Amino acid sequence: MMSMSSAEEIVSTLTKRDIFQTFVFENFQQASFNYETIHGLAFCVDMIPTIRRVYKTKEDQAEALKRHLTFFNVTPGVCGPIVGVTMALEEGKAQGENIDAGTIQSFKVGLMGPLAGVGDPVMWGTLRPILAALGASLAVKGSWMGPFLFFFAFNAIRLALKWYGLKLGLNRGLALVKDVSGNLLPKLTEGATVLGLFVMGVLVTKWTTINIPLVVSKTQNGGKEVVTTIQTILDELCPGLPALGLTLLMMYLLRKKVNPIILIFALFGVGILGYGLGWLK
Amino acid sequence: MKITIFQLILIFIWSSITGAGSVLDEFQTHRPLIACSVTGLILGDPVKGIILGGTLELIALGWMNIGAAQSPDSALASTISTILVIVGSQSIQKGIAIALPVAAAGQVLTVFARTITVAFQHAANRQAAKANFKAIEWLHFSALFVQALRVSIPTTLVAIFVSPTMVQSMLNALPDVVTGGLTVAGGFIVVVGYAMVMNMMSVKYLMPFFYLGFILGGYLKLSLLAFGGVGLILALVYVQLNPKFSKQMSATPVSNTAVENDLAEDELED
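^ inputs. structure came back:
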């Protein structure tokens, strides 16, 4: 912790080109995804422009490379700040600051957890489903705007996160840890969760089609026959109730570690059986 | 329709890109919305590709890679189902029915690919000792080819060998109860995707927002964009009014709008 202020004082020898190259590499964070170190090799490659610049001897370079071939895993979209901070730490170490390999390692691991905790639900749980659902709603009508909107909106946000995350991490160096444990990130996560849950609620009722034409009763009303089906009863209670029930059931089963592919096939089975018996249409 | 050699080459290149995209999860070329649309474009029926992509995207909404776990593979599912729908002139619903088992198969293939790349990691460890930068970079990026071929080889084989008449007669052999049932199930199969997304996000005390969306969505005839706006406003108001955040705020006498000041302050405290 003593080295915190000194990392701010050091003059960076990294060139614009080094930083940009790191940014480009960051877009291939999962290229060598493997079960042993997940993004371990990728993180090492992210650090290559920095290591090449700040360490002069082969021995120092080899040490640094080995240091960053260890296990690493975070939502790719939010790897920027971690890479940035690590670049700052390596630069500090190369310039003789009192930073040992262990400190660098614990910074990586320390940032990895909270950022993955934000990155997974925000990127995969909120941002992509919402943009994809928006794009899909246009695409099912045959509009080319659907794929375009999804592709450009998602990538604009993703690239901005990578670039500014990297710059923030690098510029703020060690001080970033304070930011992560501070107020901004939990606020962002909670806000995104509120938005995401609300939109999911809308999607469940709007985009699920379940029709249960099972006849409950047939009554005569002034010569006209009124057919009451399960569907008409449910619609009077609240539209979309079967979809809600099914979603909650799926959430429960997924939490019980049932494979989603099995659930999808089971629902196909329900569809075929229900259609065959005339309960579903 | 018959696929030309030129289209076959394009299919191979595009499915390689989706395969690489599938593991990278960056540009989203592996998502049905993109993968089906471009495959449709190559095969000369972009509109059908876009509609299939949109429909499959809704089902795949919750297919995501969390931590080290893999989701069903949307890349292989998208390319193969689009070929069968357009070249084999099948309906969109039948395309979806084909896509799902293919997605499961693709998931198995990617598990193999990610095991193979362990060897690349070990080779990189040896190169690090020699400080051989170029070799490490090369090993990292060449691992992408394993993933690219994982999708492009099966896709190209399907494009070459599956003739439209063969697909037609195979699917015609299915009884009506199956195809009708698949169409019915297609209407609600998305709930699995919703449930996966929900399980990621769901925080018990925030669940009222989910039910609010459900009720408003059932009764109000607004566009999804308008609902998104309402949700955004709800989120902003919630965060602003939440005493949990304002309490923390008063503990440090710093304005919450100026993050820069916040950071500077933190440094001074140390």
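Chain B touches chain A through 116 residues (CB under 8 Å). The longest helix of chain B spans residues 133-161.
thumbs up if we can close this ticket
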